[in-house]
What we know:
- The protein has 290 residues and is an alpha+beta fold.
- Helices cover 26% and strands 37% of the residues.
- It has six helices and 15 strands.
- It has helices spanning 22-28, 53-62, 75-103, 119-128, 142-149, 249-259; strands spanning 9-15, 33-40, 43-49, 66-73, 108-112, 154-162, 165-172, 184-185, 190-199, 201-202, 209-210, 215-218, 232-245, 264-270, 275-287.
- The strands form four sheets. The protein has a five-stranded antiparallel sheet, with helices on one face. Strands 2-3-1-4 form a four-stranded antiparallel sheet. A three-stranded mixed sheet has the order 5-7-6, covered by helices on one side.
- The protein is rod-shaped, with a radius of gyration of 45 Å.
- The N and C termini lie far apart (98 Å).
- The model is unreliable at 222-228 (pLDDT under 50).
Amino acid sequence: xxxxxxxxxxxxxxxxxxxxxxxxxxxxxxxxxxxxxxxxxxxxxxxxxxxxxxxxxxxxxxxxxxxxxxxxxxxxxxxxxxxxxxxxxxxxxxxxxxxxxxxxxxxxxxxxxxxxxxxxxxxxxxxxxxxxxxxxxxxxxxxxxxxxxxxxxxxxxxxxxxxxxxxxxxxxxxxxxxxxxxxxxxxxxxxxxxxxxxxxxxxxxxxxxxxxxxxxxxxxxxxxxxxxxxxxxxxxxxxxxxxxxxxxxxxxxxxxxxxxxxxxxxxxxxxxxxxxxxxxxxxxxxxxxx
Length: 290
């Protein structure tokens, strides 16, 4: 057997009634046959240089020899294995890149919950906040959450990320009828200690004196169209209170804390009937911020 060439060899199994003459035919065509074996009748195994592979196939097929098997040997085999491995490595790298990209990007946005009928408005908000298909999965959602919560009757909003799917759950209050267009009124006489207005026009300032039933916040007009909306606001009014109780000191103090909300600056004076309790109570009025 001749030594394998540096570029490797190809082992070809040929079957034919004249298989033993295959080596001779190749030699006459100028192809160097490295070895020839006759494992059984009408079968011969030939080895030729890898560089002669195509020419060898052309000669054998053109003279009715049946090629049953082909194997690379030496360096040719190494190149074949390396080529397959490279394909696997490239394929694995591409697969990993696709998986990583899918897991780090938003592939789909789903709107679920009782507030799903706001889907068009919610998707518009998300798009304006940069939350859409193929956007980074870890994008900030705080601003979008606040805007969704500002939609009428929406009381809950959450974002859940899983496997490239961003699920936005939106829940609405069970209120079916429109919110009545009512102003926020002062609950009692006293000093306006706190005023929180999310929607509406305030008519009083913190620190000013107000009277029971006075309008603190009125309807907000929508876009100058003349249509009136509804108020979302809360007010705290501090008012001085006093009441005499025909009770023991501890009992009078406890009863006063039950009668007056958030009682502070408490002063107690003993009387003929029991105890006089004085202090400052804080009354809360709210529209849409209960």
